[in-house]
Amino acid sequence: MKIATLQFSPKLGLVNENIARADSLLSSSSTSLHDIDILVLSELAFTGYNHPSLSSITPYLEPTASGPSTQWALLTARRLQCLVTIGYPELFSTSTPAPSTLKPTMLPLGPHPEKYYTLTAYNSTVTVNPLGEIVAHYRKTHLYYTDEVWAQESPEGFTTVDLTFPRAYIDGDDARSRPSIKRHTTTQAICMDLNNRHFTPSPPPSALCQHIMDTNTTLLVLSTAWLTHLPSSALSSQPEEFDWDTLAYWFNALAPLVDRDKEVICVFANRCGEEPGRMMPDVLATDKESEIKGEGEGVRYAGSSWIGKVGVGKGKVVVGGILGRAEEGVLVVETDGLELDGRGLRFELKQRDGEDRGGRGRDGEG
Questions:
Q1: Do 143 and 190 form a contact (C-beta atoms < 8 A)?
Q2: What is the pTM of this model?
């Protein structure tokens, strides 16, 4: 399977500029996008992430699977002849009978005063194919503090779909009748979904890992806007170095999948760059200093998007490719045979005496 992810630094609220930047990075990429099966973008890819209130993000909310992000995905899927997944802020509306007391999210339904629109905002991803079809749609289940000011949790919870990746799409209208090249049981997730709700401590596996195991998922697609506590100076001085702490956290969160003998392809599509605002306290911090580190510098993102596999050998993660913590660009990885042919990086999760598991080893070390 040939997978691509686009990592870049969208500017808060500048949708048209962010779309132009994404197009520029794709068109100028030195990495060939020929025959890719899926392109994955980050959480809230074109609107930016750190909106401080519902009123601030309201101008950028997009109708369900029909706004600027979805339209861009449809055009890009057709041009590249692949599936495209992108994160966007969804505005979902339903018509309902007028209640005795109106809520702030209820608006009159045109010429029918007896009915009202109920408006709900979600942090969502949409996946489209080259035929112009919506093949998957997911709403974030576990909200982070920033989401909670404007979005609702998914009422459906985690969802898994069977996605077909027919490179025969390129042959046009008769593609539906041609045999599919790839088919994967796919779980899509967004950022905080990797943790338990509200970071509630509990023995592993997490709710997401349990869902992946219960559904026999073979492909995990995670769009994210994952933060880093690294200062701006560290990001700008070594943009192509990935964020070790973030990578270790991700691998540790996937530990129940890493430890079993069942392969799962993983796509972690993060963003990079900075946005205005303030870092939220780190609920996992063990001292006051680490809680306040980075205040006053805005919100910074960890980049380090990666594509690889877990479950390829007890305790091992194979990373076929990874981008830097402040690097804009396109990453393409062919996952077939990745666990056998020596490509990429090998990480191993180990239990050290008196320490939590970590993923700091490279090529089987540490």
A1: no
A2: 0.85
